[in-house]
Specification:
Blueprint: E1 2-7, E2 11-17, E3 22-29, H1 36-49, E4 58-63, H2 69-80, E5 85-86, H3 108-121, E6 125-130, E7 133-139, E8 145-152, H4 154-164, H5 184-211, E9 216-220, H6 224-228, E10 236-237, H7 241-255
Parallel strand pairs: 1-4, 4-5, 6-9, 9-10
Antiparallel strand pairs: 1-2, 2-3, 6-7, 7-8
Bound molecules: adenosine-5'-triphosphate, pantothenoic acid and potassium ion (K).
The site of potassium ion has 6 residues, from loops.
Pathway: Cofactor biosynthesis; coenzyme A biosynthesis; CoA from (R)-pantothenate: step 1/5
Pfam families: Pan_kinase (PF03309)
Subcellular location: Cytoplasm
Length: 259
């Protein structure tokens, strides 16, 4: 059984994949100090609580936080007797080309998202992920990763306003009915929500213009459904895109062992 771990700057998600479907998914805040033993206690508690009694013998990790890798390696080795595949490390091969400037360390989550997007929807794709950052990643016709866009995350933008301006409160993102707010909270929500609608639409049309071809837009991440409502920003929404990509990459590495 495969344990797939997607560690972002804010949250870390663990999913168990039986080769055909995910049996369970659990989320915890990312903390680089968390030890192998802490991961194990947390995971086995949840497995027991939900009656998921399976043997894990493979682990794959994508992390945007390099410091968690050491403890996750110890976790896989100590408790599951395996060496984890870590996306972005030389021993983890990708089923697609990566065509970016030499020396660029593309975020593993972005690579995994494009592998998943290509697997599900084919090439000529823009993958938008609403995480800590909002990323746009471009997949060529042949599935290659050819670059993208990094914008501040939606929650990060709201938090930055609150932190930088003494009179601006902490607010949660929502979809305001009107653009013109009549109180501080509405004004902030409008700026972020409608600002993002414009940003997403604008960046996708600029990418299409630059590529000079139709491109399908796939959205993922916690806030994607909020932006999906009513607006024609995305062609498809994928709930579990990063996890799906991890299973594709794991299978590719098993089917194509290093010679
Ligand atoms: N309507 C909503 N309003 C505010 N936050 C939301 C809403 N729906 C989902 N979320 C948030 O989305 C987040 C899940 O998003 P996702 O896993 O894509 O990114 P993340 O964990 O925040 O970032 P990263 O992957 O970079 O760590 C959760 O933290 C959840 O609180
Ligand atoms: C952009 C984020 C933070 C999005 O999670 C991550 O993919 C990352 O840390 N990337 C490294 C830089 C890059 O992707 O070019
Ligand atoms: K994410």
């Amino acid at each position: 059984m495969l344990l797939a771990i997607d560690c972002g700057n804010t949250n870390t998600v663990f999913s168990i994949w039986d080769g055909e479907k995910f049996l369970a998914t659990w989320r915890t805040a990312t903390m680089h100090q968390r030890t192998a033993d802490q991961y194990y206690v947390w995971l086995t508690t949840l497995m027991n609580l939900t009656g998921v009694n399976v043997d894990i013998d493979e682990v794959i990790v994508s992390t945007t936080v390099p410091r968690v890798v050491f403890n996750l390696r110890v976790f896989a080795d100590r408790y599951f007797g395996c060496r984890p595949l870590v996306v972005g490390k030389p021993e983890c091969r990708l089923p697609v080309d990566v065509r970016v400037d030499a020396g660029t360390q593309v975020g593993p989550d972005r690579l995994v998202n494009t592998v998943a997007g290509y697997d599900l929807h084919g090439g000529d794709l823009i993958v938008v992920d609403f995480g800590t950052a909002t990323t746009f990643d471009v997949v060529a016709a042949d599935g290659a990763y050819i670059g993208g866009v990094i914008a501040p995350g939606v929650n990060l933008s709201l938090e930055a306003l609150h932190l930088a301006a003494a009179a601006l409160p902490h607010v949660d993102v929502t979809r305001p009915e009107k653009v013109v707010g009549t109180n501080t909270v509405e004004c902030m929500q409008s700026g972020v929500f409608w600002g993002y609608v414009g940003l997403i639409g604008g960046i996708c049309s600029k990418i299409r213009e630059e590529r000079d071809r139709p491109m399908k837009v796939i959205a993922t991440g916690g806030l994607a459904p909020l932006f999906q409502q009513g607006d024609t920003l995305f062609d498809a929404f994928e709930d579990n895109l990063t996890m799906h990509g991890l299973t594709v990459i794991n299978k590719y590495n098993k089917d194509n062992p290093a010679s």
